[in-house]
Design goal:
Helix content is about 5%, strand content about 50%. It contains 6 helices and 42 strands. The protein has a 22-stranded antiparallel β-barrel. The chain has a 5-stranded mixed sheet with strand order 3-8-9-6-7, with helices on one face. The protein starts with about 25 loop residues before the first helix and ends with a strand. It is found in: Cell outer membrane. This is TonB-dependent receptor.
């Protein structure tokens, strides 16, 4: 499938430091120094003529693929081409997006990088380096912001904590060589235990990206970002180091953010059969949270922060100006992957450790939630490949086990300052997933039956130990009080067996159709099971809910057709899912605490379409369109209403004109053509909008290039996303998160 014409479609958290585990900063400094030393010790050599990446996923056998025409003894790598070939042969919704798709884009967030993929809805939640609203096929769409529903991986190792929660803002997408998107059941082979799917960000390596690169960009709202990277290879060894720093003041009041990311990897080919790669990484993320506005207030001035409840109870919502909500997260990662190939047999072993220190300062209604702890991952895979030319192995099996512990502290927030602690907990989680599947060729057909098993435990020990819990009874005056303390300890366990059956038919070269039926299952996270409750926009919580939630499950039927012909390329998938016990997480009408419930039955229907056409030799059109209709089914409270937070239509179209080989210009429109329900009761809606962007890139030579971008050319005022509510009590509910206004950015890149 021609990549120049197809948009890359193919488609716990916290425990106290324990003896034997070095402090996070010491660990980060040590592994960073080792990686830098390894990289500087390698001399520059001739590069492999490809974009290579380390073992991107547990299930991809490209770990042992040697580059065509590469040097003898090159370290094992995964190429973008091999990843694309495998995912295009997978009967389900998949995509590969390479770094070239993000060229000439400045201030790139996770939302910017993912909304070009059909079936993925990724919208800015607060702007900047925050955690956006992101979901695939509706999984996790109601969390504020999203913290579950997807498996997020860096080089095949999960960034999710052991309980399944994640902080997607930790990823800088510009530091990935490419990333893979697995929608729905296709993520099971990676060890996913979620309904939405998985996203794997694959780092560059010294073999695939030798030399050094420096980029600097900046623009509106105080935005500045710089990135430095370098890689080298010598014989059987290579190394790659990256560093980026970005910050911005923000479009709104109390909307600043900054992010520092360091990552490195080093690979070695031990012998003709065995190769290994080591990974280290560190991210320091911080962002201010300006909060939601009422619709009228947003339209009058979208740059303001949430002012809180107005006179007479109008505009119920949090007071960001007073409470100064903010999130600060540090995460250190170390990992390794080793692959051995013996004839037709491939063995892959991955080990990883992630340490996360996360302080989330909510408004007074929740207060501080501080989580610190580590998670260990072990992943093992075996594949049988009697036909080395086949994109998929005849048989493969994967097991992933993640275990973690965390200390969590809850404290009161008085006008942006941490005051009294009102709860402490020890959290322990483990998740095991085992997947086995065949890909049996029968003429032009490939039949792919598979079976997965998952087991998860969520154990919470309440360590508070006092008879009462302090609270703030009036945030305006600072008045305090106390409430009786009850034990919040619980132990939950979940398990499920998930079969799938898929058939893929090769219509013609580069053209396939497929159909699949699958079951998926997802257990709740600690953020679902343990919730501060009783708070209001002007008073702190009165206690906790310890919800006995069931895991959510889905049976999905899907079919698709992807291919290319002449100047056209396309990828279209349609699916229908029958869900039981969907985790519906909604804020209350006052904008205070959230609550998670199991809906009885829900239904998700969607169409995911990506395509392109080369209109002339200079003119290329691309389109991404996602249709989704997610509804309750005879629900006691909501009948057959649409589930809040999901736009029915999401359209992204781009038209690129190549002036000459060095210069291109592009126009883009993002369009949500109908209103989106803010609450499940269907009483409050976010209005339709369209945003137009333009960008251009000029490559002076092999070393220097520059780019410029204008976002939201017509300075449209719109809600990029909203809170998800059960029922809005008033039409002036503060639930809307404004998107950025008109902005101009530019950047320069030099490669040596």
């Amino acid at each position: 499938m021609p990549t120049e014409s197809l948009l890359s479609w193919s488609c716990p958290t916290a425990c106290a430091t324990t003896p034997g585990i070095p402090p996070r900063r010491a660990l980060t400094a040590a592994v960073s120094a080792l990686a830098l030393t390894a990289a500087l010790g390698l001399g520059a050599t001739d590069a492999l003529a490809q974009s290579a990446a380390p073992g991107a996923t547990v299930t991809l056998d490209e770990l042992v693929v040697e580059a065509a025409g590469g040097q003898p003894g090159a370290p094992a790598t995964t190429t973008e081409a091999e990843a694309r070939r495998r995912l295009e042969a997978t009967p389900g919704g998949t995509a590969v997006v390479d770094h070239r798709r993000l060229e000439a884009r400045s201030d790139v967030s996770i939302a910017d990088s993912l909304n070009i993929v059909p079936g993925v809805i990724a919208n800015s939640f607060l702007g900047g380096n925050d955690q956006p609203k992101i979901h695939i096929r509706g999984s996790g769409q109601q969390t504020n912001p999203t913290e579950r529903g997807l498996l997020i991986l860096q080089d095949g190792l999960p960034l999710n904590r052991a309980d399944g929660s994640y902080i997607v803002g930790l990823i800088d997408p510009r530091m990935a060589d490419f990333f893979e998107v697995y929608r729905g059941y296709t993520a099971n082979r990676l060890g996913a235990t979620v309904l939405g799917g998985a996203i794997n960000f694959v780092s560059p390596t010294g073999s695939g990206s030798p030399g050094a690169e420096v980029s600097v960009e900046g623009g509106s709202y105080g935005y500045v970002r710089t990135q430095v990277q370098g890689g080298a290879r010598k014989g059987d060894y290579d190394a790659f180091v990256q560093y980026s720093y970005g910050q911005r003041d923000g479009y709104r009041t109390w909307n600043g953010s900054d992010r520092t990311v360091f990552s490195a990897n080093a690979g070695a080919k031990i012998n003709e059969n065995i190769s290994t790669r080591l990974f280290v990484g560190y991210t320091d993320l911080g962002f201010e949270i300006p909060g939601p506005l009422s619709w009228n207030r947003m339209m009058a001035d979208p740059t303001q922060a949430a002012p809180g409840v107005q006179a007479g109870g109008a505009e119920p919502g949090p007071n960001a100006l007073r409470d100064k909500p903010r999130r600060d997260t540090e995460q250190a990662r170390v990992g390794s992957r080793t692959t051995a190939t013996f004839g037709e047999h491939v063995f892959d072993l991955a080990l990883g450790y992630t340490y996360t220190d996360d302080t989330f300062r909510f408004p007074v209604g929740t207060g501080y939630r501080i989580t610190e702890g580590g998670d260990f991952t072990t992943s093992a895979r075996y594949a049988y490949r009697p036909d080395k030319t086949a994109a998929l192995p005849l048989f493969e099996t994967t097991a992933m086990y993640v275990v973690g512990s965390a200390d969590r502290t809850y404290a009161n927030n008085l006008r942006g300052s941490r005051t009294t602690t009102y709860g402490t907990n020890e959290l322990e989680a483990q998740t095991l997933s085992v997947w086995s599947g065949f890909n049996v060729p029968v003429g032009a057909f490939t039949i792919s039956p598979a079976l997965s098993y998952m087991m998860a435990t969520r154990d919470n020990t309440d360590t508070w130990g006092l008879a009462t819990r302090p609270r703030i009874t009036n945030a305006a005056t600072g008045a305090t009080g106390s409430v009786a303390a009850t034990d919040t300890s619980f132990s939950r366990s979940y398990d499920a067996v998930n079969p799938s059956l898929a058939v893929l038919y090769h219509v013609a070269p580069n053209n396939v159709v497929f159909a699949a039926v699958s079951r998926t299952f997802e257990a709740p996270t600690f953020d679902d099971l343990l919730e501060a409750t009783g708070g209001t926009p002007n008073a702190s919580p009165t206690g906790f809910k310890t919800l006995d939630l069931k895991g959510q499950s889905s049976i999905t039927a899907e079919t698709g057709f992807r291919g290319a012909w002449d100047r056209f390329a396309w990828d279209v998938v349609t699916y229908y899912s029958w869900l039981e016990n969907e985790l519906i997480r909604t804020s209350n009408a006052a904008g205070g605490n959230a609550s998670t419930e199991n809906a009885d039955r829900t239904r998700h229907f969607g169409v995911e379409l990506g395509g392109s056409v080369r209109l002339t030799d200079q003119l290329l059109a691309r389109v991404t369109y996602t249709f989704q209709d997610f509804r309750f089914s005879d629900d006691v409270l909501y009948g057959d209403n649409r589930i809040a937070g999901a736009p029915r239509h999401f359209f992204l179209g781009a038209l690129r004109y190549t002036v000459d080989p060095r210069l291109w210009v592009e126009g883009e429109v993002q369009w949500v053509p109908d209103d989106v329900p803010v609450d499940n009761a269907g009483t409050l809606f976010s209005e339709a909008f369209a945003v137009v962007n333009a960008r251009a890139q000029y490559k002076h030579d092999a070393t220097w290039s520059g780019y410029v971008e204008v976002r939201n050319i017509f300075d449209t005022t719109y809600a990029a996303s909203t809170l998800a509510l059960g029922r809005a009590s008033r039409a002036d509910q503060a639930a809307f998160l404004p998107g950025d206004g008109r902005a101009v950015y530019g950047g320069i890149k030099a490669r040596f």
